[in-house]
Amino acid sequence: MENFTNSIVLPGNLPEVDPVKFTGLNRKYLTVLYARILIVFLILAGGLIAFVSLADETVPEKFIYLIAGAILLIIAYSAIITTLGFPKKGYLIREKDVSFQRGLITYKVTSVPLNRIQHVEVNQGVLGKMLQLSSVKIYTAGGTSSDLTIPGLSKPEARKMKAFLSGKISEHE
Amino acid sequence: MNSIDLTTPTRQSARGLVLIFLFSFQKFVRAFWPLFLVLVFQNNIFQNQRVIYISILVFVVLLAAHTILYYLNFYFYVVGDEFILKKGYLRKQTLSVPLERIQSVNTKQNLIQQVLDVVTLEIDTAGTVGKELKIHALSKAYSNALQEKLQTEKSTKKWAEETTAEETEKAKEETLLHLSPTDLLRIGISQNHIRAGLIIIAFGMQLFNQAQDVFQEQADKYSNEFIEFMSHSNWALITFLVIFFLLVSILFSLLRTVLKYFDFKLFKRAETYRIESGLLNKRNVIIPHQKVQELNWETGPLKKIFGIYHLVFKQAVSGQNRRQQQQLVDAPGCLKHHLERLKSDLFGEDKLNEAPRIYTNNFYFRRLWLLFGWIPAILASPFFYSDWIFWGAALVWLLAAAGYCYLIIKKRYFRVKNNQIRISKGAISHKWEQMELHKIQAVEFKQSIFQKRRSLASLDLMNASGTITIPFIDEKIAKQLYNYLLYHTEISKRSWM
Fold first, then answer.
1. What order of strands is seen across the sheet that includes strand B102-109?
2. CA B265 to CA B176: how far, in whole Å?
3. Secondary-structure class of domain A88-172 per CATH
4. How far is A4 from chain B (nearest CA, A)?
5. Where is each YdbS-like PH domain found (chain A) (predicted)?
6. Window A:118-137, CB contacts with B under 8 Å
7. Interface test with A, best of B479, B486, B491, B496 (most A CBs within 10 A)
8. How many CB pairs under 8 A join A and B?
């Protein structure tokens, strides 16, 4: 290991993290994302209605339209980004690391080497429970910035992934 | 080696009773101060002086009883290879840590503790129990014995295969750096006075506001006088004010430096550093080499004149107390040879200078200028109608921002060789961050659509102490580096901690 040299400015033939090889998330997860947007919409719209009906003076119509327009714009934007960005989301498990990619406007890939995983957790939210979806959370010693969450996995898929990753942890200990 | 038997259950120092009493008092007051306020203002309860005395007496007696019970039920000892701490009288608690899990043992001493000659001992483990393992009133002798025990335990275990016992014995403590009062003066002068100045201004404003509320009338009178005085005054006065302000900032920086770094000493023994420093609050911190994730050092225009660097050991710490911990383990006033020595201790032979500097792309400049220059200028544009002077100000701002961003990108580069990476950054001051590649916990590749158009990308390297960012480099290099970093971390047999 010590005498290994490979200057990075020269092209090496190291294995690449190829975006094409990533596995996409379960389509049902898109429903979860839409539901989240819907919840945000309901909260914002509810807030506006409450404000208008509870205000002491009559609120000018122009103002209501402006705010309502802004809310619709934000919701439409998030819906479009979510829809177009969904195919970008995916995970890749290789022999020695696990990666997750996402992002339409800013594309991001995060990789965690298997020998740096501290522990693995399978989580399920309320929406996930209804749709039989789980997420796998991978903890490293790097704190929140380097913890990796892979959402939108079917329950057996998540369980299998956790079993595989946990097996790798005990190998490295 | 030492007369203290660590295996017998020991209580805290008896002198510590005073300290425990004060700590409990402080805790109690902190929890119940609103209640006190209510009692004080409802003076009908306190009409009778007797009631006051009796309630104070009851309070003191109860607190004293708590102190004694707490003291009697708080003890600790070493059994086999575990450190055990028992505490609590109502709810009993036993904490145990295997000695090999203990990362370091640090001590702190505030003014009262210095008078009582006791220390706060903090045992830092890899897990999260560390915060619980605090002993506030430990005799110095015991804490030294414990530190000694843990250090020898560690080094003998580590060296067992490679070296003989004789060599272990030889591992004496060596002083690497000892700051004299002159050094402190240099460090104080070369601090960032702008930051210190801003703290003073913020503090002063707050004080002024409060004073204004209280002395509204006088304040009005004085401020009117002041404005009149200012409008009639000349440049000499303004210069005087600026110099005065600068002097206050420097004095403030000096004071802070002396309080924090008084009698600063950096020791090395085997594979650990030890830092001792402080005037009112003394600290004694142990830094095992392998726990250092990243070495950061910094110099600025004033520091350069004295040839000094400010150095920070970034250690692996668990979650919440990250920032607090990192503040503790810095070494100001290192000279070039100190820095080189520490680097070679931690990273071995420095081959990074042979590696080419890979600079950030010029596009990063445009991005920064947009962020620092144009966006604030555009946000301020409504003012442009009121006075032509704002146009001038905006122009000056844009030029200054351009200069600043130019400084940033000139300093922003990285070098990588074998298992080392070093990044350089800064604007007016110059900072470096170096780490070993096997300390990596995760790597992130980031590319916005704007970067993609120009085939650029950014990388984040996360380790157990934070993140190192490499912004706006060629996409191809970013990808290669990404693969290389993963490869290196994956084949490395060395532990990150």
1. B134-139, B118-125, B102-109, B282-288, B272-277, B265-269, B174-178
2. 8
3. mainly beta
4. 7
5. 90-164
6. none
7. B486
8. 111
Q: What's the rounded Cα separation, in Å, for the pair B92 and B308?
A: 51
User: Which amino acid, B204?
Assistant: G
Q: What angle do CA B115, B116, B121 make, to 5 degrees?
A: 110
Mutate to test the interface with A, among B125, B353, B417, B443 (most CBs of A within 10 A): B443
Half-sphere CA count of A50, side-chain side, radius 13 A: 6
Chain B contact for A35 (CB, 8 A cutoff): no
Best of B417, B438, B445, B476 to disrupt the A interface (most A CBs within 10 Å) is B445
Contact A146 B442 (CB under 8 A): yes
Beta bridge partners of B268: B174, B273
**Contact partners, residue B274, CB within 8 Å, separation at least 6:** B173, B266, B267, B268, B284, B285, B286, B287
The domains of chain A are located at: 28-85, 88-172
The SS3 assignment for B350 reads coil
Q: Any chain B CB within 8 A of the CB of A4?
A: yes
Measuring CA to CA, which residue among B485, B323, B319 is closest to residue A142? B319
pLDDT by residue, tens only, chain B of 497 residues? 446 777 888 888 888 888 888 888 888 888 877 777 776 666 665 566 777 788 888 888 998 998 888 888 888 888 888 888 888 888 888 888 887 777 777 888 888 888 888 888 888 776 554 456 788 888 888 888 887 777 666 655 554 444 444 444 446 778 888 989 888 888 888 887 777 777 777 777 777 776 666 666 666 666 666 666 666 666 777 788 778 888 888 888 888 889 889 999 999 988 888 898 888 888 888 888 888 889 999 998 888 988 999 999 988 765 555 555 555 688 988 999 999 999 999 998 888 888 889 999 999 999 999 999 999 888 888 877 777 778 888 889 999 999 999 999 999 999 998 889 999 999 889 999 999 999 999 999 999 999 999 999 999 999 888 899 999 999 999 998 999 999 888 888 888 87
Helices (H), B287-388: 301-306, 322-328, 336-347, 363-369, 375-379
Q: Do A108 and B444 touch (CB under 8 A)?
A: yes
Nearest to A136 by CA among A113, A116, A115, A119: A119
Of B78, B77, B129, nearest to B103 by C-alpha is: B129
Q: How is chain B split into domains, by residue range?
A: 10-170, 188-261, 295-361+410-491, 363-398
Structural tokens at position A147: 């913890």
Whether B328 contacts B314, CB under 8 Å: no
Would you list which residues of chain B are within 8 Å, Cβ to Cβ, of chain A?
A: 316, 319, 322, 355-356, 358, 416-418, 440-449, 452, 460, 462-464, 466-467, 477, 479-484, 486-487, 489-493, 496-497
Residue of B nearest to A6 (CA): B418
| Cβ-defined contact of B482 to A7 (cutoff 8 Å) | no
CB nearest B445 (choices: A108, A144, A148): A108
Q: Note whether ipTM > 0.90 here.
A: no
Whole-structure pTM value: 0.78
Ranges of H-type helices in B233-321: 235-261, 301-306
Of B360, B363, B368, B365, give the one whose Cα is nearest residue B477: B360
Contact with chain B for residue A6, Cβ under 8 A: yes
Q: How far is B224 from chain A (nearest CA, A)?
A: 40
Could you tell me which residues come within 8 angstroms of residue B191 by beta carbon, excluding any fewer than 6 positions away? B253, B256, B257
Q: Contact at 8 Å (CB) between B338 and B177?
A: yes
